[in-house]
Design goal:
It is built from 15 helices and 16 strands. With 448 residues, it is of the alpha/beta class. It folds into 3 domains: 83 residues, Arc Repressor Mutant, subunit A, CATH 1.10.10; 235 residues, Type I PLP-dependent aspartate aminotransferase-like (Major domain) (Aspartate Aminotransferase, domain 2), CATH 3.40.640; 100 residues, Alpha-Beta Complex (Aspartate Aminotransferase, domain 1), CATH 3.90.1150.10. The chain binds pyridoxal-5'-phosphate (PLP).
């Protein structure tokens, strides 16, 4: 049987589809709807949130919740635009996903439309294999101001994903059989990419100061690479301490090894000053920095980049002729406009404010429910501590439609405590957070 919120969502969809609630009409507030229908406000919020995620409704801040203008009438039927009709709304807590409701899609469409209209016939050819210079220049400016990284556009190589960044790095610098320190626990999806390049992954424990560099040197003295998420360790959220930053840089300089710094969500910190990225301290020129627009904009943009040390530019360029940037020129030029016209800064500022709020909603709701939330200093994920079999608990939550993940599934060798990992970015109200926390508790502890 459907949960109550699903019944409400279905009823609302049917009312919209019948034309009774036309595009643009305002819905009653969740408080009024709840009172009139004898359900909890959290349930109504949850139903509204689900329909917002699917594109049927839009929220306009204080003004309220409205039927989306994209819902168009056709032959007496009303349906969302074709793209939104696809039932591909993400499940609650979906990992690695930014807030999809906050991206300024109309602005993006305008910028892209302008680029499309002003294209010349020369834009129809293949672009630079390292990515369009205009975008690389915009990224140089962004890195200088936001991350204190000083580099030239020649040092930047655009890629379509973190996986492609990793392939480009390893195809340029690694030899079969090389060893790589990897964080344990750490991001599992990159492991097959590293394995495909025949680089051996050497697990290193993570503590409250990030990767344990002493342990790494003791356990695996002959590694040639170190892969780290220094800003917010993925998934534990801790920052690599300054002494450890110095230590890993010294190690790389002394042993002629390479550090790969995955700075995937450094944009999102909510208090305190960030520590400088390893790349900004890279006097020995041993750091390759990887960045992405997947978290700061949206994942479907499929655009990331790497910054390589100046002496390696020629080798990377040669490899880039084979492992070419596949991001379409139109996307690259639109992105360049988005950055140079100041929209990126504004968007990040807005996202930070919303994320601080959304994280607080979820954290509060989880704690009120009885969960123990592990402290994190930023990022877009939350971890809750879990005693016992976290994989079984997560399987029950997945069964209940919640896309959480088990901390133990992110571990290689380490035997640390269990946990449940989740992303809070698409929790759009306190009431939705309460409803989700309740659902999670029931699924995890009662299997319902
Ligand atoms: C740890 C980590 N690094 C990098 C990325 C970026 O991946 P991509 O640019 O391929 O979306 C992600 C995305 O989930 C991530 O979780």
């Amino acid at each position: 049987m459907d949960a109550r919120y699903q019944q409400i969502a279905r009823l609302l969809k049917a009312t919209i589809a019948s034309g009774e609630l036309p595009a643009g009409s305002r819905l009653p507030s969740s408080r009024i709807y709840a009172q009139e229908n004898g359900v909890s406000r959290a349930t109504v919020e949850h139903a509204y949130g689900e329909l917002v995620a699917q594109g049927w409704l839009v929220r306009r801040g204080q003004a309220g919740t409205f039927v989306s203008e994209n819902v168009t009438a056709a032959k007496g039927q009303v349906s969302p635009t074709p793209a939104e009709a696809r039932d591909n709304a993400p499940l609650p807590f979906q990992m690695g996903l930014p807030a999809l409701d906050l991206f300024p899609r109309a602005l993006w469409a305008r910028l892209m439309g302008r680029r499309l209209r002003t294209q010349s016939r020369f834009d129809l050819g293949i672009g630079d294999p390292a990515g369009e210079r205009e975008l690389r220049l915009a990224i140089v400016d962004y890195l200088r101001f936001s991350r204190s990284i000083d580099c030239t556009p020649e040092q930047i190589f655009l890629t379509s994903s973190y996986a492609m960044s990793m392939s480009l790095i390893l195809r340029t610098l690694a030899r079969p059989g090389d060893g790589m320190w990897v964080e344990d626990p750490g991001f599992p999806l990159i492991r097959p990419v590293i394995a495909r390049e025949q680089v051996q992954q050497l697990p290193v424990p993570v503590d409250e100061n990030g990767m344990d560099i002493d342990a790494a040197q003791r356990l695996h003295p002959h590694a040639r690479f170190a892969l780290l998420t220094p800003a917010h360790q993925s998934p534990l959220g801790v920052a690599l301490s300054l002494p450890r930053r110095r230590q890993v840089l010294d190690w790389a300089a002394r042993t002629d090894s390479w550090i790969i710094e995955d700075d995937y969500d450094s944009e999102f910190r909510y208090h305190g000053k960030p520590l400088p990225p390893l790349k900004s301290l890279d006097a020995p020129q041993r750091v390759i920095y990887t960045g992405t627009f997947s978290k700061s904009l949206f994942p479907a943009i499929r655009t990331g980049w790497i910054v390589v040390p100046a002496p390696q530019v020629a080798a990377f360029r040669q490899q880039a002729q084979i492992t070419q940037c596949t991001v379409p020129g139109l996307v690259q030029f639109t992105l360049a406009d988005f950055l140079t016209q100041g929209h990126f800064w504004r968007h990040l500022k807005k996202m930070r404010q919303h994320y601080a709020q959304r994280r607080q909603w979820l954290e509060k709701a989880l704690i009120a429910q009885g969960f123990s939330v592990v402290a994190q200093n930023g990022g877009i994920q939350l971890v809750i501590a879990f005693d016992g079999d976290d994989r079984a608990a997560v399987a029950r939550a997945n069964q209940a439609g919640l896309a959480v993940e088990a901390l133990s599934a992110w571990r290689l060798d380490s035997q640390g405590s269990g946990g449940v990992i989740m992303c809070f970015t698409n929790v759009t109200s306190g009431a939705m957070a309460d409803a989700l926390a309740q659902r999670l508790w029931r699924a995890v502890y009662d299997g319902k």
